[in-house]
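Hi R.,

Here's the chain you asked about this morning:
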Amino acid sequence: MSIEVLQKRIKIVLGIFFIALVLSGLTAIPLQWEMALLNHWFGNGTFMEQLFPSLSHWITYIHKCLTETYKNYPFIPYGTDWLAFGHIIIAISLIGPWRDPIKNIWVIEYCMIACLLIIPTALIFGSIRGIPFFWRLIDCSFGILGIIPLWICRHYIKILQRRI
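And here is the predicted structure, written out as tokens:
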């Protein structure tokens, strides 16, 4: 594989990861609207209640809690705005490896560590906060799915290091 092909692949993987990170962060802003849609499609009284009742009840419960919280405590969603900000800032850090992957491989490794830390964070704090286990597994999947493109990118960077 040529140096140019490696560099192109690194940029493609980073670009996809960058977009996914920004989009996943931005979904934290219209949370109440998103939960209203999920509740309408999958909450109590939908086909999902027959297939996966615990998931359906959980979605309806979250929708109810968000609606009440946003109405009574409108400053609370500011926390999810900061969550979106954090995702965007982490995505911006990927500009370094985009421009100079060898020099900035540490950013990729840092993001890989962050992906790994999603798992104990979701399992420990999700348990403390009363999040159902199936939902904590969904949260863990973001770390597992996130580390895959980062590992591929790191692999390409390591090959690139040996070629230069």
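One quick note: The chain has eight helices and no strands.

Cheers,
M.
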